[in-house]
Design a protein that fits this description.
- This protein is α+β, with helices and mostly antiparallel strands.
- The chain folds into 2 domains: about 300 residues, 2-methylcitrate dehydratase PrpD (Orthogonal Bundle), CATH 1.10.4100; about 120 residues, 2-methylcitrate dehydratase PrpD (60s Ribosomal Protein L30, Chain: A), CATH 3.30.1330.120.
- The protein contains 18 helices and 8 strands.
- The strands form 3 sheets. A 4-stranded mixed beta sheet has the order 6-5-7-8, with helices on one face. A two-stranded antiparallel ribbon has the order 1-2.
- A hairpin with a 4-residue loop joins strand 1 and strand 2.
- Helix 4 packs antiparallel against helix 9, helix 5 packs across helix 9 and helix 7 runs parallel beside helix 9.
- The model has no long low-confidence stretch (mean pLDDT about 95).
Length: about 450
């Protein structure tokens, strides 16, 4: 059997009873995180544009457009909701780096609502979709942005989404191989679009294209069922000779990747590499009596050219600026959704500090999130110097995870952007026991998350 065939046998043979308590608990937390950040994401201009676009296209009203108060066909709902889950750059980070939540959960929820699936099926599908993406990323050997040809969620997300939604559709191994083959032809996304509205669609389109691939395979549509091994297939198109195809056969071996290495919950809505500088800046902020006394700031970081943006021109671009994110922490003592507005970027104190900010990209510092660090040095008037080293934000792999209480602060902040407290608490209560929900309960959860008038 080919690796693709063996992999699809394992995927199709995995069910809820195989997950285990740690994976179920981790998946519950992800569902709540995904719904909350999607609701908050609908306040963004990019989602306003996408919502108007998808609504205009029409089609059967099968699935909730989260936070938008209307319904779409399943594929469009997956595209819009996936973009909303990613637009704030607030979803959890994975090891190796990827956005595995928006690319899978958006399609799962849309299809589960339309087909009357239970919460248990949602959790199982999510674990399987995350597992698929994680093993492709692991096999790739491309662990740093400088070695990636494509933005990871666009490259692996469609395949993970096909696997996840294939579970809801109960695809057999042969149908699943076709779904993966179809999805492989739809993969791709460019890192050059980081800092633009288009980046959010990398995840939304991955969710939608994976879902559509599974739907087509369920109808008998075919593709190359050995797409990983094919000479002109998925692997040579997206990766180099370092891709270790057999590593993907780790799929489903306990513990699942949703547990080990697991994920890092984001507490700041920006690119994960910037969280190192943010954390350092928050540490130094209380020691700065007056921000106007800052004479110079030096941040030493790994070679991460796509987040070396000395002068972002939009608040959105600031999410991908080592300079802006660390400056925000130094000035404000906090970094949240409102940090990344054009208004905050344009204020005089921010523009003044950005002019004093230098970044050195040091090739001696590893660029992989698991191993990297940053050094932050702040020189003040009078010659006083503040310095710190940050090995990573709280919750990074190898450190204690973000507590449930801390996570709920983030969740409630996100839900409060659109919902009254009682509705927000109802969503939290349902999502935290999603595996107990039948089809009616799941639809109730999505009705609440839809923000229908």
């Amino acid at each position: 059997m080919t690796v693709t065939a063996q992999l699809c046998e394992r995927i199709a043979g995995t069910d809820f009873d195989d997950l285990g308590t740690p994976a179920i608990e981790a998946a519950r937390r992800l569902v709540l995180d995904g719904i909350a950040i999607a609701i908050a994401g609908t306040k963004e201009e990019a989602i306003h544009i996408l919502a108007a676009h998808h609504k205009e296209q029409g089609g059967a009203a099968q699935a909730t457009a989260i936070g938008n108060g209307f319904r779409l066909n399943t594929v469009s709902a997956a595209a819009l909701n996936g973009a909303a889950m990613h637009v704030l750059d607030f979803e959890p980070m994975w090891s190796p780096a990827n956005h595995a939540l928006s690319t899978t959960l958006a399609g799962i929820l849309a299809l589960a609502e339309a087909r009357g699936a239970s919460g248990r099926e949602v959790l199982t599908a999510l674990v399987k979709g995350v597992e698929m993406q994680g093993w492709i990323r692991q096999a790739s050997g491309q662990f740093e942005a400088s070695t990636s040809r494509f933005h990871p969620p666009g490259a692996v997300g469609p395949l993970g989404a096909a696997v996840a939604t294939g579970h809801i559709l109960k695809l057999d191994p042969d149908q699943l191989a076709n779904a993966v083959g179809i999805a492989a032809s739809r993969a791709g996304s460019l890192l050059a679009n980081a800092g633009t509205m288009t980046k959010s669609t990398h995840c939304g389109h991955a969710a939608a294209l994976g879902l559509e691939s599974a739907l087509l395979a369920a109808r008998g549509f075919t593709a190359n069922v050995a797409v990983f091994e094919a000479a002109q297939g998925y692997v040579p198109a997206f990766y180099d000779d370092g891709f270790k195809i057999e590593e993907m056969l780790g799929f489903g071996r306990a513990p699942f990747r949703i547990v080990d290495p697991g994920y890092a919950i984001k507490m700041f809505p920006s690119q994960f590499g910037t969280h190192f500088g943010i954390t350092a800046g928050l540490e130094l902020n209380p020691q700065i009596p007056d921000p106007s006394a800052i004479r110079r700031v030096l941040l030493t970081a790994p070679v991460m050219t796509y987040v070396n943006r000395p002068r972002p021109t939009k608040g959105l671009e600031g999410k991908f600026s080592l300079q802006y994110t660390a400056a925000s922490a130094l000035l404000d003592g906090k970094v949240g959704i409102r940090t990344f507005t054009d208004a905050r970027l344009g204020k005089a104190d921010m523009q003044d500090l950005l002019g004093k900010f230098d970044v050195v990209l040091d090739p001696a510092i590893p660029g992989r999130f698991e191993d990297m660090h940053v050094l932050l040095r702040v020189e003040l008037d009078g010659g006083r110097v503040l310095e710190t080293r940050c090995n990573g934000p709280r919750g990074k792999w190898g450190t204690p995870s973000i507590s449930e209480a801390e996570h709920l602060i983030k969740i409630r902040d996100c839900l409060a952007t659109r919902l009254e407290p009682a509705t927000a608490e109802h969503i939290i209560e349902l999502a935290r026991r999603i595996d107990d929900l039948d089809a009616v309960g799941l639809r109730q959860l999505l009705q609440l998350a839809g923000c229908f008038a």
